[in-house]
Design goal:
The complex is a heterodimer of chains A (89) and B (376).
Chain A (H helix, E strand, L loop, with lengths): L17 E2 L2 E2 L1 H16 L10 E2 L15 E3 L2 E3 L14
Antiparallel strand pairs in A: 1-2, 2-3, 4-5
Chain B lengths: L1 E4 L6 H6 L7 E2 L2 E2 L5 E5 L1 H28 L9 H12 L6 E7 L7 E6 L6 H15 L9 H15 L4 E5 L4 H16 L4 E5 L4 E3 L4 E3 L8 E4 L3 H4 L14 E3 L5 H4 L3 H8 L9 E2 L8 E5 L9 E4 L2 E5 L9 E5 L10 E9 L2 E10 L9 E3 L1 E3 L2
Parallel strand pairs in B: 4-21, 7-8, 7-11, 11-12
Antiparallel strand pairs in B: 1-4, 2-3, 5-6, 5-18, 9-10, 13-17, 14-15, 14-17, 15-16, 18-19, 19-20
Chain lengths: 89, 376
């Protein structure tokens, strides 16, 4: 039988991730980058970004699968089903 | 196996929010419910662990059969997508996790209800929240739960294979999905992997380079997506998937296990297994059975048939089917509630459980998560 025998730790998820109805995920990326840099010695930049939190069943991105193209890159080709359903199971 | 009631911690909302569970209450109804817990003996936990490992092996063998016999139509996989599914299997593309939903009462062998093999959630609750609940309740208490450590160990296999950044995608407007992915990203970071997050709708396709790209335009080499394959392969970018080099986690072959279409094949292959209920693509010749849409999610469009009559049916968007029929599992009530064991498979092995309970025999997205512990 496998049992958890030690304390676990979180470096990203926690009280600072969701605050006052807003995601602060890019700020959390500072923590993620800091942690990974300590072990991998990589570098990246991060900028604060605030995205309003909505409950399940709604979408902050419009949904509908309307893709948009800029140069050779097209976006929006995934995610058209999400406006109606949760992705989890 | 017992259900015992407790007085919730005075500060339970703050306690669970501290570790990211901000969706403990939805529409005024509890989702995280620590007014009760389930208690298991060591024998019962050993039984669940054995059943989980056995089921996983049976599932893997059945995937091989599906591939060999090209049974993809049973899973509504488009013909142009079949070779990609085969490739993902033959390349042994990395699978991190899955969750069997089991009917279990401590007496009969656990019975497989379904395998959430592609986009399982309830993960943070099972791995972290119920563990800290137990530590607050009884610091010396124990739990069937090594999910967190096993996730980190699982990610290390990816870290060894590739030094590329690992992208994580979800539908960030769905808080449960977003938190699940951020928790998984947390464990990947602890495995030493450089990570990035982007919404599934931000994933780009660079037609000049024939590759999926992130927001700045960098190629996405490895991507964990909390987004079902059965949706991906029907959306605008579907035809690009086989052309791109992105390694998706979970891989495409997991959609064979996450569909209820696997249930009749498992029964056909293992009719004598104590863990597998009779199932068929046609109505069964039994009085009590359940009709399930093959790609239904979160208890939608489930029809319960007792003594040959439909006694309950949940609403949802999957009413057109196709369906499979599964013999009704002998679910036992505990204080008027029906528990379903979510048994986690991490990197191919049983790793712990979480429990959802409901007033009816159909587990839905609103069913409460109730913690567990091992009896002394």
């Amino acid at each position: 039988m496998t049992r958890m025998g030690k304390e676990l730790s979180l470096v990203l998820v926690g009280a600072t991730m969701l605050t006052g109805g807003y995601f602060y995920f890019r700020e959390d990326d500072h923590a993620a980058d800091s942690y990974t840099n300590d072990t991998n010695h990589n570098h990246s930049s991060a900028h604060p970004l605030f995205i309003p939190m909505m409950m399940r069943g709604s979408s902050s991105n419009g949904g509908g699968g309307a893709s948009r193209t800029s140069g050779s890159i097209t976006r929006g080709g995934f995610g058209s089903t999400v406006s109606a359903h949760s992705s989890g199971s | 196996m017992q259900r015992l009631t407790h007085t919730p911690r005075n500060n339970w909302q703050t306690a669970v929010e501290k570790y990211g569970l901000h969706f403990h209450t939805a529409d005024g109804q509890l989702y995280w419910d620590e007014s009760a817990s389930y208690h298991f003996s060591s024998f019962e936990i050993d039984t669940l662990e054995f059943a989980t490992n056995s089921l996983h092996q049976m599932c893997m063998d059945t995937v091989q059969q599906i591939i060999d016999d090209r049974l993809f139509r049973l899973f509504l996989i488009p013909e142009h997508f079949e070779d990609y599914v085969i490739k993902s299997w033959e390349e042994d593309q990395f699978s991190l996790y899955g969750r069997f939903d089991l009917a279990y009462d401590g007496f009969i062998p656990p019975k497989l209800l379904e395998y959430n093999a592609d986009t399982p959630t309830s993960l943070l609750e099972a791995a972290v929240i119920q563990w800290y609940w137990l530590k607050d309740l009884d610091d010396r208490g124990d739990q069937f739960n090594s999910i967190h450590e096993r996730l980190i160990e699982g990610w290390k296999k990816i870290a060894l294979k590739s030094s590329n950044s690992l992208h994580f995608c979800a539908t960030e407007s769905v808080v449960e999905d977003y938190v699940t992915v951020e928790y998984l990203r947390d464990t990947a970071i602890q495995a030493g992997i450089k990570t990035n997050y982007l919404d599934i709708q931000q994933v780009g396709w660079d037609r000049a380079k024939n590759t999926f790209v992130d927001v700045p335009g960098n190629p996405i080499q490895n991507c964990f997506k909390l987004y079902p394959w059965e949706w991906m392969m029907r959306e605008e970018f579907a035809l690009n998937i086989p052309k791109g080099k992105t390694q998706w986690i979970e891989p495409a072959w997991k959609m064979l296990l996450s569909s209820k279409s696997i249930l009749p094949l498992l029964y056909e292959r293992y009719p004598d297994s104590p863990f597998i209920l009779p199932a068929s693509y046609e109505p069964l010749d039994v009085a009590n059975q359940v009709r399930k849409p093959i790609y239904g999610r979160e208890g939608a469009n489930i029809q319960v048939i007792i003594d040959g009559k439909v006694v309950s049916e949940t609403p949802g968007p999957y009413g057109q089917g196709p369906f499979v029929y599964q013999q009704l599992a002998p679910l036992k009530q505990f204080d008027g509630f029906y528990p379903v064991i979510g048994s986690w498979v991490i990197d191919g092995e049983s790793a712990g459980i979480g429990i959802r309970e409901e007033n009816s025999i159909i587990t839905k997205n609103t069913s409460r998560f109730v913690p567990h512990q091992l009896s002394n």
